[in-house]
Design a protein that fits this description.
The chain is an alpha+beta fold and 197 residues long. It has helices spanning 2-12, 51-67, 102-105, 142-151, and strands spanning 26-31, 37-43, 72-77, 82-88, 92-95, 98-100, 112-117, 130-134, 137-138, 158-165, 168-175, 177-180, 184-185. It folds into two domains: 14-89, Phosphorylase Kinase, domain 1 (2-Layer Sandwich); 92-180, Pdz3 Domain.
């Protein structure tokens, strides 16, 4: 009886094999319009630890970015079982240099309330501003802002941001900066991916 219990516990905590979806478990990729962005959906057996979902998505993103000839990658959660995969050629990326209040992002629909601006020298945005639109498009997600800044042409240095400050509507020109990031390297995944025979 004791042996059976140990085997049962070990099987509950085991990691499923890493693979594209085979009908029972694995990952699927849904591409987006940007070559360096896609959605990773992970389907694992019901007895799999929840923490393995993110690890599996991290590995799947690394494999997919490597296959697309990118050098760096990152993931962010989209839903319980799906993640946004972002691939990068460089360890620094173009960004709006804004951090948002977590509480606002958790609302339905989310509110993009500025917590901090990391480059205060040239910005007109202040803490507690609520960002509403960027370049005339309603802001729907932080991912949307990331992709907009990262995919902007090199000559584009600013974006128009419509915001609410103290119940007043304003439009400001916000600079696009370049910041070093802590991305995962595609070389990091090689130790985890099973080798083809």
């Amino acid at each position: 009886m004791r042996f059976l219990l140990i085997v049962l516990l070990a099987s509950c905590a085991s990691r499923p094999s890493f693979q594209k979806f085979n009908g029972t478990h694995g990952y699927t990729i849904t591409p987006s319009q940007s070559p360096g962005h896609f959605t990773v959906e992970v389907k694992l057996p019901a007895n799999t630890k929840r923490s393995y979902l993110r690890e599996y998505a991290w590995l799947a993103t690394g494999v997919e970015c490597q296959a697309r000839n990118f050098l760096y990658f990152e993931i962010s959660s989209a839903t319980e079982n799906s993640f946004h995969g972002l691939c990068h050629q460089d360890a620094s990326v173009r960004s709006l240099l804004i951090n948002f209040e977590k509480e606002g992002l958790l609302r339905t629909p989310p509110a993009f309330i500025v917590e901090e601006v990391t480059s205060k020298a040239s910005t007109k945005i202040k803490s507690a501003d609520e960002l509403l639109e960027v370049d005339g498009k309603k802001i729907k997600s932080v991912l949307q802002l990331k992709l907009l800044a990262q995919s902007a042409p090199a000559k584009k240095t600013h974006v128009a941001i419509k915001l609410r400050r103290n119940k007043k509507m304003l439009t400001v020109q916000e600079p696009i900066g370049k910041i070093p990031r802590q991305f995962s390297s595609v070389q990091e995944i090689e130790a985890f991916v099973p080798k083809e025979p």
